[in-house]
């Protein structure tokens, strides 16, 4: 919104606006929303512009503001994630037992991945993260694992929206090269691409229909990461993701994008 210094206050106001709109399914006028939320009109107008771009808010034919389709995506992701977490925990625990590093489970939500489960490393020095936290999809191992098997329109939307919202991002051809490599190897990497000092190796999780629904990753401080064992780690994470997929009913090749789709 161009007011990064007040980022926390902006988030609080955005949540407040979304909660108010959730109580008025048919929508509210700008004036009514300003009065109900007590957010200054100018600030509210800018805030609604950002929420509309993110599809969390829409404008009705009558000119009222109402919750948008993006909230359905988030709601579905939350509901789907409840069963997914239970199915994933045994395989995640095995990854931590074998590597002594933190294992995350995440889903794609717009241009971010959202962590819906984690099991911490027993080491005192480890990646800081929390369930419910987010990171950009394009620069994370989980995001790359998911996008490698997502439909082409989803990938293009993530690339373009990331550029618009963050003002930076990999070139389109680089993204496709990275995702093609994920499909060739069966696992993804983030070697300090998202966070300096943290290396992650991830793999996709598929549902009973072969659709990618999540990803897992093992996260290691760069000081402990052994590049010589990258493929070994990748295969371990890939196998764990496969067990989670099997628990969700997947028993064949993933649907959607394939290794020759670029």
General description of the model:
It is a single chain. The protein has 262 residues and is an alpha+beta fold. The protein is 47% helix and 18% strand. It has eight helices and eight strands. The strands form two sheets. It has a six-stranded antiparallel β-sheet with strand order 5-4-3-8-7-6. A two-stranded antiparallel sheet has the order 1-2. Strand 7 (198-206) and strand 8 form a beta hairpin. The two termini are 34 Å apart. Residues 1-5 and 256-262 have low confidence and may be disordered.
Name its key features:
six-stranded antiparallel sheet; 8 helices; disordered C terminus; 47% helix; single chain; two-stranded antiparallel sheet; alpha+beta; 262 residues; disordered N terminus
Quick overview of this protein structure:
By secondary structure, this protein is an alpha+beta fold.
């Amino acid at each position: 919104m161009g007011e990064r210094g007040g980022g926390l206050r902006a988030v609080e106001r955005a949540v407040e606006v979304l909660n108010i709109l959730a109580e008025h399914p048919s929508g509210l006028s700008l004036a009514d929303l300003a009065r109900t939320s007590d957010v200054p009109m100018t600030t509210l107008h800018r805030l609604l512009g950002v929420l509309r771009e993110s599809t969390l808010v829409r404008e009705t034919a009558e000119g009222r503001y109402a919750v948008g389709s993006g909230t359905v995506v988030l709601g579905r992701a939350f509901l789907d994630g409840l069963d997914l977490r239970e199915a994933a925990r045994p395989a995640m625990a095995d990854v931590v037992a074998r590597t002594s590093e933190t294992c995350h489970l995440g889903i794609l939500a717009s241009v971010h991945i959202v962590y819906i489960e984690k099991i911490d490393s027993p080491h005192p020095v480890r990646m800081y993260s929390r369930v419910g936290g987010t990171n950009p999809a394009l620069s994370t191992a989980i995001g790359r694992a998911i996008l490698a098997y997502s439909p082409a329109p989803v990938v293009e939307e993530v690339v373009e929206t990331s550029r618009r919202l963050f003002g930076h991002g990999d070139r389109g051809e680089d993204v496709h090269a990275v995702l093609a490599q994920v499909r060739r190897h069966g696992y993804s990497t983030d070697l300090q691409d998202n966070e300096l000092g943290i290396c992650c190796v991830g793999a996709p999780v598929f549902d009973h229909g072969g659709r990618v629904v999540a990803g897992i990753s093992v996260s290691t401080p760069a000081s402990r990461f052994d590049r010589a064992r990258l493929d070994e780690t990748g295969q371990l994470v890939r196998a764990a993701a496969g067990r989670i997929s099997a628990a969700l009913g997947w028993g064949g090749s993933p649907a959607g994008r394939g290794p020759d789709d670029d």
